[in-house]
Design a protein that fits this description.
The chain is mostly beta strands. The chain contains one helix and 24 strands. The protein is rod-shaped, with a radius of gyration of 49 Å.
């Protein structure tokens, strides 16, 4: 299956409306069989009760109904992982298959003569199928589905002769009118504890923290399932004599209710995964250091896709225009690496700062901010004379000069006179 990555909004970065992304559409097949008619026995007893001529029916049913349909799971973001489950029109199939085994036994007690005969047995098959549009939820069209299979005319009237006593014969005839019904009405989809009881209702899921490249989900479909099975058996009995003809003894209807039940049933669970992109960038900040003005310094920025859906994104610089990025768009398939070059090109000396904005379709980290810094400086011109730096007062030296000042000479003459005067006094 080809991976589909849908970009639903305009391509420019940081547009007024956020970009919308989508995972692959996952097809979910729901179906189950309901053996509502399976192995149910019914005995009418002898009817009419207490009559010298009576009939008894033994009935056993088999089968049930089967329902199946397709839905699609749609997953979009950003802001949150938003899921919609939508039924696929025309994919619903409802089958009804009911088999009914019938047998009749006639008993008589006439003029002291009693006995019974197995006079008839038959299998009736009721089958029907129709298609429908899921999801059969409360606001859907339709919101429920009922299908009826009638057996009118399946059993044609027939006659069987049963010898009673010499000259007398029992004539038995029967018609059967069966009806089987199945019913289906949806309650909701349940996915990871989130309930959607309206058509295409949105539910939110947490972004996976461990398995970043996929979102694992389990969905169940809950519905009411109903079934009913009933028959009307119409026997006719007459006593016939070769001389006097036939005399009708009884004709009556026997209504029989085999099944009438509605239960809540869960389809599923269906376990599936939505693939997601996952961005890995090893650079969280970068300092270019001191760079001579009008000199370029490049940072190679690898952008790796750790996910299972193609990764795409856009980059731009916020801050000082000494920084730039190329190309502004990146794309990486599953397990591959794309990248860009972030350049520092100072035009004047001094510290510079900016932020690299990385916007991508990674639902966990849709926007990354990478601080950038650097300093531009100017190299001295070698043709200019060096600047003389004055010596500090603490430097070692005598402090003398080849030319002695007048003040210095007077001090020396005074000291010499004092020395000579001291010697004379001795």
């Amino acid at each position: 299956m080809v991976l589909s990555l849908l970009l639903l909004t305009a391509p420019q970065a940081h547009a007024d409306q956020p970009r919308m992304y989508a995972s692959e559409v996952i097809e979910l097949e729901f179906g189950d069989y309901f053996n509502a008619f399976e192995a149910i026995d019914y005995d009418t007893g002898s009817l009419p009760s207490g009559s010298p001529l009576a009939v008894r029916f033994f009935i056993r049913s088999f089968g049930g109904s089967h329902a199946e349909f397709l839905s699609e799971s749609h997953l979009t973001w950003p802001d949150a992982l938003t899921q919609q489950i939508v039924g696929v029109p025309g994919t619903g199939i409802l089958d009804l298959d009911s088999r009914i085994d019938l047998a009749a036994q006639v008993s008589f007690d006439l003029w002291g003569i009693a006995g019974s005969y197995d006079v008839w047995s038959e299998r009736i098959v009721l089958e029907r199928q129709r298609t429908f549009d899921p999801d059969l939820l409360a606001d859907g069209t339709p919101s429920s589905l009922e299908m009826v299979a009638d057996g009118d005319g399946l059993i044609r009237p027939f006659t069987v002769g049963v010898p009673l006593i010499a000259g007398l014969e029992l004539e038995f005839r029967v018609q059967v009118f069966p009806r089987a019904t199945t019913f289906l009405s949806g309650y909701h989809y349940e996915t990871e504890g989130q309930i959607a009881d309206q058509t295409a209702q949105e539910v939110m899921h947490e972004i996976p923290r461990n398995n970043r490249g996929r979102l694992r989900l389990v969905t169940r479909y809950v519905a009411d399932v109903g079934a009913s099975l009933s028959l009307i058996v119409q026997p006719t009995m007459a006593v016939c004599h070769s001389w006097f003809g036939c005399y009708s003894v009884a004709t009556f209807d026997i209504p029989i209710h085999m099944v009438n039940d509605v239960v809540q049933h869960t389809f599923g669970p269906r376990v599936y995964e939505h693939p997601l992109p996952a961005l890995e960038s090893t650079v969280t900040w970068h300092d270019y250091g001191e760079i001579p003005v009008e000199t370029l310094s490049n940072l190679q920025l690898p952008l790796t896709n750790l996910g299972q859906l193609p990764l795409e994104g856009w980059m731009e610089i916020e801050g000082d225009d000494s920084f730039s990025v190329f190309p502004p768009y990146f794309y990486a398939t599953e397990g591959n690496t794309s990248g860009a070059v972030v350049t520092f090109d100072p035009r004047e000396p001094g510290p510079k700062a900016a932020t690299l904005i990385i916007e991508s379709n990674d639902p966990r980290d849709p926007i990354l901010r990478v601080p950038l810094s650097g300093t531009g400086w100017v190299e001295p011109d070698p043709e200019e004379p060096p600047v003389e730096v004055p010596r500090l007062s603490g430097e070692v030296g005598c402090g003398c000069s080849s030319t002695t000042s007048a003040g210095s000479s007077s001090v020396l003459a005074l000291l010499l006179s004092l020395v000579l005067l001291r010697r004379r006094r001795r």
